[in-house]
UniProtKB/TrEMBL annotation:
Residues 8-161 form the Nitroreductase domain. It comes from Salinivibrio kushneri. Transmembrane segments: none annotated. Keywords: Flavoprotein, FMN, NAD, NADP, Oxidoreductase. Its EC number is 1.-.-.-. This is Putative NAD(P)H nitroreductase. Binds 1 FMN per subunit. FMN binds at R10, R11, S12, R35, H39, W131, R132, T133. The keyword Transferase does not apply. InterPro entries: NAD(P)H_nitroreductase, Nitroreductase, Nitroreductase-like, YdjA-like. One of its GO terms (molecular function) is oxidoreductase activity.
Length: 182
């Protein structure tokens, strides 16, 4: 697919089927993330791939977090099932460090860029993705389970898999509403 066309037509697909990306395709997805813009060459990224038993572990982490919230059984089950909407979830973590020229927010933004680069690399190879956070990305129990401390942040759970339907149309937006000239 033409790169510009891919960007202009980009949509997310919320339900993704097996197979998940693997082998060279998965390697390309990770490599695309590792090419994210990175002020100061701090490489502030970590990707936790959850597939198979790993996905079950992520389910348990989210269900346990819901339980610590005092959620009812239905909400706990919803949390448990959340990661199962795709055969693979990549938790993208901004691993930050103090730097006199690169504020933490820039390191978070870089991890966000990595997330979209990975999503687009999946699309470029015939797969699809959906970027989610939800309250659990900020939940102390989830952070602890993924060893996320201090200024570090889970910037997204990137759901990856095979699209089982065509993406929705990508409506063209009116640039004049978003653009001004100085
Ligand atoms: C940081 C971030 C977090 C997001 N978290 C969620 C989420 O938790 N749940 C959700 O439905 N969409 C979430 N989204 C939005 C979806 O990924 C998606 O972009 C949105 O549904 C619009 O669909 P589209 O990508 O096809 O335009 C998030 C997007 C970003 C950038």
């Amino acid at each position: 697919m033409d790169a510009l066309e891919m960007l202009l037509q980009r949509r997310s697909i919320p339900r993704l089927a097996a197979p998940a990306p693997s082998g060279d395709v998965l390697e390309n997805i990770i490599q695309a993330g590792l090419r994210a813009p990175d002020h100061g060459a701090l490489t502030p990224w970590q990707f936790v791939i959850c597939e198979g038993e790993g996905l079950t572990r992520l389910s348990t982490i989210l269900a346990d977090a819901a339980q610590t919230n005092g959620a009812d059984e239905a909400a706990i089950e919803k949390a448990r099932n959340a990661p199962l909407r795709a055969p693979m979830v990549v938790a993208v973590i901004a691993r930050t460090r103090p730097h006199d020229k690169v504020p933490t927010i820039e390191q978070h933004i870089s991890a966000g860029c990595a997330t979209q680069a990975m999503q687009m690399a999946a699309v470029a190879q015939g797969f699809q993705g959906f970027w989610r956070t939800g309250a659990f990305a900020y939940h102390p129990a989830v952070r602890e389970a993924l060893s996320v401390e201090g200024d570090d942040q889970i910037v997204g759970f990137l759901y990856l898999g095979t699209p089982d339907c065509a993406p929705a149309n990508a409506p063209k937006r009116d640039t004049s509403k978003f653009v001004t000239y100085l």
